[in-house]
Amino acid sequence: MKPPHPRTRHHLPKRTVSIIGTGSYVPERILTNAELEKSVDTSDQWIVTRTGIKERRIAEKDEHTSDLAAKAALAAIENAGIDANEIDLILVATVTPDMFFPSTACFVQSKIGAKKAACFDVSAACSGFLYALEIAQQFITSHTYNTILVIGADKLSSIVDWKDRNTCVLFGDGAGAAILRHRGGGHGVIATHMGSNGDLSDILYIPGGGCRFPIAADNLDQRLNAIKMNGKETYKQAVNAMLNAANTVLEESGLNYDDLACIIPHQANLRIIEAIADRMEVPLERFMVNLDRFGNTSAAAVAIALDEAHRTGRMKVGDYVLLVVFGGGLTWASSVIQW
Ligand code: ACO
């Protein structure tokens, strides 16, 4: 008798992918605007009116990105009610890895005891968490993996030029995590859109530390290992890219802004969020905003905001949620999820 035709992945039905748990962690130490006034020529009033940021969290010297990530991961694992050994893949989105290699995801694996997981990092700056979410969704949809831990984690205090008032007031440290799995019931990620523009890499970047400007005394003297940013251009690009990304993913989902219970944007600047809210004609109250307390935590920002929105009941089962991000690269991404 002829053996049955093997079921290839191609023949398996497409699965919807859900976030079954979230978690986050921010360091205990709070750095206020008043403290920054003592180290650079700035003021609480300037920072609040231009950015909306009141304070940010700063990790200890011996508290690394993988430590922040592991704490967020453990919170997400508990929230999902799973065992770490059920995780098939760990993705860490970060621009501040503990080391060039091993990946920060490998360090997280060791810290949380997820012995069966494969691990790698994702580099897409502040957009990294949504890029990683989409990678995870593809792995689950293709039936390659069942349970994936996605983390956005950054220790930006380690790459900020603390003498540059243009940038040092903006950033903070933290991590957010989500557990993804096929849950059935039709709810989950509906559509995701990602984009990049490498022609504008020089408006927001860290030139030093890689092979182009390696760690060497003259490069360090020029502070090439710290964030460089053209603030005005970044602002302009961020508003346009986030708006376009949001419109694109909504169109792909067959939804409009009135259908959304909650919008979770990248937490870079309140004025950027107000500008997109205005153009979307969506009241600001429907946006999840926590940058006043944490500043811009890069890849962690939208992940921390997602966890906070989840834990504070901002979305109920069945609600539509839009996540939209922007970062260096340039990169941008958006995702619509039915909660
Ligand atoms: N305190 C006081 N004055 C300051 C400070 C500060 N911390 N920083 C800049 N200034 C001064 C400038 O030197 C300038 O002075 P000058 O007129 O004498 O030259 C003046 O304030 C105005 O500067 P602008 O750049 O015009 O200020 P702007 O209103 O554009 O706000 C800001 C600056 C907040 C950086 C804004 O451009 C912005 O938010 N851009 C986007 C930044 C961002 O989102 N980055 C990250 C996104 S992606 C990612 O997350 C990695």
Short description:
The chain is built from eleven helices and 13 strands.
Relevant terms:
Peroxisomal Thiolase, Chain A, domain 1; alpha/beta; globular; binds acetyl coenzyme *A; five-stranded mixed sheet; 339 residues; 11 helices; four-stranded mixed sheet
Mind explaining what this structure looks like?
The protein is of the alpha/beta class and 339 residues long. The chain folds into 2 domains: 9-186, Peroxisomal Thiolase, Chain A, domain 1, CATH 3.40.47.10; 189-338, Peroxisomal Thiolase, Chain A, domain 1. Helix content is 32%, strand content 23%. The chain has 11 helices and 13 strands. It has helices spanning 33-37, 44-51, 65-80, 104-112, 128-141, 165-168, 217-221, 231-253, 270-280, 291-294, 301-311; strands at residues 17-25, 30-32, 55-57, 89-93, 118-122, 147-155, 173-182, 188-196, 204-205, 228-229, 260-265, 320-327, 331-338. Strands 1-7-6-4-5 form a 5-stranded mixed β-sheet, with helices on both faces. The radius of gyration is 20 Å and the shape is globular. The mean pLDDT is 94. Acetyl coenzyme *A (ACO) binds next to α2, α6, α8 and β12.
Spell out the helices and strands N to C.
Answer: EEHHEHEHEHEHEEEHEHEHHHEE
What binds here, in terms of ligands, is:
acetyl coenzyme *A
CATH topology of the largest domain: Peroxisomal Thiolase, Chain A, domain 1
N- to C-terminal distance: 47 Å
Shape: globular
Structural class: alpha/beta
Low-confidence stretches are: none
CATH architecture of the largest domain: 3-Layer(aba) Sandwich
Q: What average pLDDT do the residues reach?
A: 94
What's the arrangement of strands in the largest beta sheet?
A: 1-7-6-4-5
Q: Tally the helices: what do you get?
A: 11
Largest sheet: 5 strands, mixed
Reading off the top of the CATH hierarchy, the class of the largest domain is best stated as: Alpha Beta
CATH superfamily of the largest domain: Thiolase/Chalcone synthase
How helical, in percent, are the residues? 25-40%
Query: What amount of the residues lies in strands?
Result: 15-25%
